[in-house]
Amino acid sequence: MGRWQPDARVRLQEAALALYGERGYEETTVAGIAERAGLTKRTFFRYFTDKREVLFWGSELLEQQMVAAIEAAPASASALGLIGAALDAAAVRFEEVREFAGTRHRIIAASRELQERELIKAASLAAAMAGALRARGLGDTAATLAALMGTTIMHVAFKRWVDDPDQTPFQQIARDALAQLREIASTG
Amino acid sequence: MGRWQPDARVRLQEAALALYGERGYEETTVAGIAERAGLTKRTFFRYFTDKREVLFWGSELLEQQMVAAIEAAPASASALGLIGAALDAAAVRFEEVREFAGTRHRIIAASRELQERELIKAASLAAAMAGALRARGLGDTAATLAALMGTTIMHVAFKRWVDDPDQTPFQQIARDALAQLREIASTG
DNA sequence: AACCTGATGTCACCTGGTGCCATCACCCTA
DNA sequence: TAGGGTGATGGCACCAGGTGACATCAGGTT
Question: Which nucleotides of chain D does any protein CB come within 7 A of?
Answer without folding.
Answer: 7-12, 16-21, 25-27
